[in-house]
Amino acid sequence: MIYTVTVNPALDYVMQPQKVIPGTVNRTQDATFLAGGKGINVSQILNQLRIENTAWGFIGGFTGKELVRQLNQRRIVNDFVTIKDLTRVNVKVHAEQETEINAAGPVIAPAEVAAFEDRFSDLQTGDIVVLSGSLAPNLSVDFYQKLLPLIKKAGAEFVIDTTGQALLDTLSYGPLVVKPNHHELAEIFNTTFNSDQEMLICARKLLDGGAQNVMVSLAAKGGYLITREHVYHAPAAVGTAVNSVGAGDSMIAGFVGSYVESGNPKESFRVGMACGAATAFTKDIATKSQIDAVLPQIKVEQIS
Predict the structure, then answer these.
(1) How do residues 154-171 score in pLDDT, each as one tens digit?
(2) Catalytic-residue membership of 169
(3) Most CB atoms within 10 A, among 174, 186, 250, 287?
């Protein structure tokens, strides 16, 4: 079983007026609420791949109920902890330019955190927990890191989508895969890359720190997978990128979902690249048919 964790999910209120004039009353005929969150994006892709998964996190109030209603409608299995505070609403205005106002999120009480941690007693050997997304404002910055011993005690694996020192602090627990892009990888080591070889040297340092696999996204230049045995490269799929939101989540979902079925990092990388590209080519999270259309383009080459 794969469990996706979205600690601070949101209802995204998306409005698409033709024009926005600051300081005046603006109107739109096109507005909708959409369930949002990085872990929820992962669950959506896993569902498209027909990989069993359950979404975990915190929800509260009428906004939380609407979020769960939407997940149920999409047949995304979920088991959230209900909190007293409201699930946040993020406002996204898509006009001549895109403007976003993201709320900080609810206050989560200690008893609610304890109830969430109890979920981890259900983990079994072979399960994978995907931890991603921002934290609610009153949670400590090491909230995810404190969950890792619970995961490893159960014999489960984990994936964490974070960067910087927060990523480095998780390596000793042996994440199944980490996925910095090339800019984030350079920032981790306070450097710049003049070549792919320099980049790969830093990626291997993440392996040396404990990561089992490292995926590095190069956007239009494709991506790399670095394992303890080999280095693989895949050129980017051909298409028009219209959406960067959720592409990284989709890449992680594709890798993890394929890995559960095959245990093959190379094939999992291929599926991950296809899922990320398919989402980048659409205005929403990719569907199975869109992923299948991109997959034949992804040619993975072993370079060492």
Answers:
(1) 999 999 998 888 899 999
(2) no
(3) 250
